[in-house]
Amino acid sequence: MPLTIEQLNAAPADAFVALLDGTYEHSPWIAERAAALRPLASLAGLKHALVTVVREAGVAPQLALIRAHPELAGKAMVSKTLTAESTNEQGKAGLTDCTPAEFAQLLQLNADYNARFGFPFILAVRGPRGLGLDRHEIIATFARRLGNPVDFERDECLRNIHRIAEIRLNDKFGVSPDLGNRVWDWAERLAQHSDPGYAERGELTVTYLTDAHRACAQRLSHWMKADCGFDEVEIDAVGNVVGVYHGSSHGSDRAAPRLLTGSHYDTVRNGGKYDGRLGILVPMAVVAELHRAGRRLPFGIEVVGFAEEEGQRYKATFLGSGALVGQFDPAWLDQQDADGVTMRAAMQHAGLCVDDIPALQRDPARYLGFVEVHIEQGPVLAELDLPLGVVTSINGSVRFVGEVTGMASHAGTTPMDRRRDAALAVAELALFVERRAASVPQVVGTVGIFEVPNGSINVVPGRCRFSLDIRATTDAARDACLHDVRTELAAICARRGVSVALDETMRASAAPSDPAWQARWERAVAATGLPVHRLPSGAGHDAMKLHELMPQAMLFVRGLNSGISHNPLESTTNDDTELAVRAFADLLEQLNTEHSA
Fold first, then answer.
1. Residue 60 CA: distances (Å) to CA of 63, 154, 165, 217, 498
2. Which of 106, 145, 450, 549 is the right S-S partner for 73, CB 3.0 to 4.6 Å?
3. At residue 201, does pLDDT exceed 90?
4. Can you give the pLDDT at residue 79?
5. CB count, 10 Å around CB of 526?
């Protein structure tokens, strides 16, 4: 019989430990300490309790836990002395069927890894979907992680150990994250479409109104209609995919107020599968469950797959969500992409009607608010071992491109006190930006571009191009940082005898979460049995635009690989996605209760 939370909560401490035997390799102390944390509210709560025990144990027990695990395709596998759980996992990953060359490569990787870190390489070989990674993925991950710093890699091993334990607990409880699997599988299928030049290399790039982009729109439309039961599905005048599930307690009611949700389906170049797309697929899964149950709520649900957010093909960031708040700039239509194709021509080729764009603006009186689910795109939740986080604010940001001009001169004959080095002026600025941003909580500053045009090894740089990006949870904190940076830049230039041109390219106001909607997300997370963690968003999101029209709040989902995003390594697990779906469903039930009262 599958294990239950009720059974674990009622068991004596020694029976509790016995029931969880094998969850963590040769480490019963974890279950022994977790027994004191009962009662546990849910399976997710149990997983978090076990993680908390390990987090609070300290480095020495953590290293002992790592060292209790066998090497991948190592001596224990060859001698058949692995635990039953490890034997099953390594077998599912095909490690028992390595070719001689693969086996030799793994032996060498194991040796190199142990020499560098002093503990075995740990990888959850059943993977983010639970079905098993292939040997090529395992070997590539092994080789990549050899370059990590020691402390980072220790933590990465622990994160993988917790994922191994999570899958083993699912097996013990007879639980399958079916809703998470559905979203995960949709994301994989959507990622089959990629722009030319990237698709051939197995890279994911989907930019505005390319063939791959339009294929994604068609696939989302099909799933909304055929798999989810939306009442209305359309591709609007800018390419947004819009699905509506009407509300009413007595059949479909087109006039019922709506909850607006969604995110974007375009990607950065060589990006990941979940940025934006997770926020479309999660509510789709929730609507599919409502439709399957034959349920209507007192409000409708409008899910929008925004056609453009990243500004990759044209310089028109937030084009999709901007159209919904009446901020589509007609001047964008004359922009040209790298091949000289105007946005107007691309829209006409896609069959979109430019004249209909103004009609896309939403009437806020029809909507309850806007919510967005998004992969975190950062390391915070991963480092805290938390699957979900509630967003408090989307940072306000400002961006500049600039160029410092000094004097190019001979590197050998120009004395140090007579140089007008443009690059060192920018370097000095970059270090000031780092110090100034770090001096205030929730402010970040970045000099991401640092370029010496036609630079030479024996020439003092006469020009240096650079970028400046400052973000903060409030516009006041952002602007105070910018003021200090500009003041320091002027002082640097005066002292070094150089000049600067600085052009602002983007400014976005901070978007604090609506308190009532943030509270709903908090209750939804708590309902899963997890603690509520609040954090700001350093990245911009479509919710920033909708914030200008209606109340908004966001839910973050933990990413794998330390939360990396805008990168092929961007990923999440089926279990974390399952929790996101359930949290979204709980938010809808809260609204249902409020509107039925």
1. 5, 11, 20, 51, 53
2. 106
3. yes
4. 57
5. 15
Dist CA 118 CA 151 (whole Å): 12
- Cis ω on the peptide bond leading into residue 39 (within 30° of 0)? yes
Residue 82 has pLDDT above 90, yes or no: no
Classified as helix, coil or strand, 101 is: helix
Note whether 532 and 370 are within 8 A (CB).
no
pLDDT in tens, 493-512: 999 999 999 999 888 899 99
Give residue-wise pLDDT tens across range 4-48: 999 999 999 999 999 999 999 999 999 999 999 999 999 999 999
Question: Do residues 369 and 551 lie in contact, with contact meaning Cβ atoms separated by under 8 Å?
Answer: yes
Residue 149 pLDDT more than 60? yes
Strand-pair partners of 468? 400
What's the token pair of residue 567?
């990168």
Q: Nearest-CA neighbor of 168 among 14, 12, 30, 15?
A: 30
Please tell me the predicted confidence (pLDDT) of residue 384. Answer: 96
**Is the distance from CB of 254 to CB of 240 less than 8 angstroms?**
no
Q: Above 80 in pLDDT, residue 86? A: no
Pair of tokens at residue 314: 């044209």
Tokens 């890894």 belong to residue: 113
Show the beta-strand stretches assigned E in 195-332: 232-235, 241-245, 258-264, 300-306
Q: Which two tokens stand for residue 176?
A: 């399958």
CB 176 within 8 A of CB 131: no
Average pLDDT for the chain = 95
Q: Which ranges of 119-149 does DSSP label H, i.e. alpha helix?
A: 135-145
Does the pLDDT of residue 81 top 70, yes or no? Answer: no
**107 pairs with which residues across the strands?**
none
What backbone phi and psi angles, to 5 degrees, belong to 522?
-65, -45
| d(C-alpha 469, C-alpha 505), whole Å | 10
Q: Are 524 and 530 in contact (CB under 8 A)?
A: no
Report the C-alpha gap between 108 and 110 in whole angstroms.
Answer: 5
Instruction: Say which residues have a Cβ less than 8 Å from residue 206's Cβ, sequence separation at least 6.
Output: 193, 194, 195, 212, 213, 216, 265, 266, 267
Percent helix, strand, coil in the chain, to 5, is 45, 15, 35
- The first and second tokens of residue 330, run together, are 């007609």
> Cα(457)–Cα(440) distance, rounded to whole angstroms?
38
Nearest to 31 by CA among 43, 44, 49: 49
What would the mean pLDDT of 386-401 be, rounded to a whole number? 96
Give the separation between CA 475 and CA 473, rounded to whole angstroms.
7
Which residues does 276 contact at the CB level (< 8 Å), separation at least 6?
A: 263, 264, 265, 266, 267, 306, 309, 374, 542
Residues in the chain: 597
Find out whether 517 and 394 touch, Cβ atoms under 8 Å.
no
Residue 81 DSSP class: -
Helix axes 100-117, 135-145, angle to 10 degrees: 30
